[in-house]
Amino acid sequence: MDTIKYQLTDDQIPTSWYNLAADLPQLAPILHPGTGQPATVADLVGIMPKELAEQELSTEREIEIPATVRQIYAQWRPSPLFRARRLEQALGTPARIYYKYEGGSPAGSHKPNTGIAQAFYNKEAGIRRLATETGAGQWGSSLSLAGAFFGLEVKVFMVQVSYHQKPYRRALMHTYGATCVASPSTETAAGRAILAADPDCPGSLGIATSEAIELAMNDPFTNYAGGSVLNHVALHQTVIGQEALRQLDLAEDYPDIVIGAAGGGSNLAGLAFPFLGEQLRGGHRVRVIAAEPEACPSLTKGRIAYDFGDTTGLTPLLKMHTLGHSFIPPAIHAGGLRYHGIAPLVSQALQDGLLEARAVPQTRCFEAGLTFARTEGIVPAPESTHAIRVAIDEALRLKEEGRSEAILFGLSGHGHFDLGAYERYLAGELMDEGFDQERVERALAELPTPAGS
Ligand SMILES: Cc1ncc(COP(=O)(O)O)c(C=O)c1O
User: Are the beta carbons of 404 and 94 closer than 8 angstroms?
Assistant: First the structure.
């Protein structure tokens, strides 16, 4: 029999997270927005526990995973690595295609890898409630799951357009015991100000983040939990790539190309950073490709600048590829990719030539998602279809060139709550939103100038 899945045992769940910052000395510091000075742990503890603030600023290469977190990971980790043999056949490609599937977690994506860790540290710190943003609801439902496990209240601000597009994600959050409101909401000053200016605002991850941070800043027992972008979130996701390295060992293979969908950058970071770490320490070279939406292309069209992580300007300043914190992306169905910036670590890796980025339109992504569902059986999340699109394009290029290379991509989540979007695609109702240069120019004109620069 040909091997289809490469599996590890529970005791092979990684014991530490891998921190790429240790191998990227040129990474720009996070700045305090008031002083323009590098942020300290003390600056961050107003909205997150000390352990997470320390991880955010850490340059240690390995950070131990607490035993309680590893124990919970064991419910769905190690996640399977699949060889996409039927997809390879359908494409007629000599490429060897592998995918690491994170959709087997209880919430259906990679997001619980950090949700569980963040809930653990917050519970230890005596916090009672976590506030967060969510796009399509993958992160909100993951943090809601973590809140249920640790006895923490969870308040989720869900981007308005996704709140209506994905009603069952909302129901999933409520099922786990969380509360979820559409953002912009009337519950925060940030939300009210945005609604006053634009009552029909579709929302964005930046706006929902402002609302969640505002709640955390105003209540000592509420902290903010971020679903992406932040260094400690990328860190927690590195269990994905570390497992994939061992699984490819079982397959006696090594990827030439590693591909991930990029919203805030966390699943791409989680899959690719352990491979980049090997490369930076003298191991195999890999091509890493970030697949982002054409309608919200921070890596391919954004400017490298210090910017806020949220729309209102409550976060520290992050140096990243950004379309401007006030940019509100069009209402594409990959709600988790509608973010104006990208993780500073991913941004630095792009600047250092460690990864490439490619922007893809949503209809070509759904087309790839359909091909994948009909060959491999798993219906991918709209976000994940971006990685599949690029993987298929690379496999077809190799076919044309008559070369066999190994491709590894991240299947970051399933699309069972996104079937409405698939129906719209099948009915020919989904359009490409394109890239609005003018709106981005306007948003870029509002970039902050760090004090003292
Ligand atoms: C399934 C899935 N993949 C990818 C993403 C993009 O986020 P990130 O770039 O942080 O992995 C999301 C975000 O919600 C998601 O739900």
Answer: yes
- Which pLDDT tens digit goes with each residue over 2-20? 999 999 999 999 999 999 9
Give the per-residue pLDDT at 96: 98
For ligand 1, say whether the CB of 264 is within 6 Å of any of its atoms.
yes
The sign of the dihedral angle between the CA atoms of 376, 346, 55, 149 is negative
What does the DSSP assignment read for 61-121? SEEEPPHHHHHHHTTT-SPPEEE-HHHHHHHT---EEEEEE-TTSTTSBSTHHHHHHHHHH
Nearest CA to ligand 1 atom 12: 336
Task: Point out which residues pair with 37 in neighbouring strands.
Answer: none
Among the listed residues 23, 26, 18, the one whose alpha carbon sits nearest the alpha carbon of residue 281: 23
Nearest Cα neighbor of 293 from 247, 238, 335, 350 is: 335
Report long-range pairs for 161-167 (Cβ below 8 Å, ≥24 apart): 161/202, 161/203, 161/331, 161/335, 162/134, 162/135, 162/136, 162/137, 162/203, 162/335, 163/203, 165/136, 165/331, 165/333, 165/335, 165/420, 165/421, 166/136, 166/137, 166/335, 166/417, 166/418, 166/420
Give the model confidence (pLDDT) of 299-355 as tens digits.
Answer: 999 999 999 999 999 999 999 999 999 999 888 888 889 999 999 999 999 999 999
Structure tokens at 64: 């131990």
413 Cβ inside 6 Å of ligand 1: yes
Give Cα separations from 110 to 165, 233, 322, 441 (angstroms): 21, 11, 24, 33
Question: Could you read off the pLDDT of 352-387 as tens digits, one per residue?
Answer: 999 999 999 999 999 999 999 999 999 999 999 999
Question: Quick count: other Cβ atoms within 10 Å of Cβ 285?
Answer: 11
Read off the amino acid at residue 323.
L
pTM for the structure as a whole: 0.98
Summarize pLDDT for 141-187 with one digit per residue, the tens. Answer: 999 999 999 999 999 999 999 999 889 999 999 999 999 999 999 99
- What is the C-alpha separation between 278 and 269, in angstroms, rounded? 14
Say whether 179 sits in a helix, a strand or coil: strand
Distance, CA of 388 to CA of 101 (rounded, Å)? 12
Q: Give the residue from 157, 143, 132 showing the smallest Cα distance to 106.
A: 143
Residue 97, strand partner residues: 407
Residue 218: strand, helix, or coil: coil
Supply angle C-alpha 138, 140, 146, rounded to 5: 105
Is the Cβ atom of 365 under 6 angstroms away from ligand 1? no
266 lines ligand 1 (CB under 6 A): yes
Average pLDDT over the chain, rounded to an integer: 96
Contact, 96 vs 406, CB < 8 A? yes
Which atom of ligand 1 sits closest to the CA of residue 268?
11
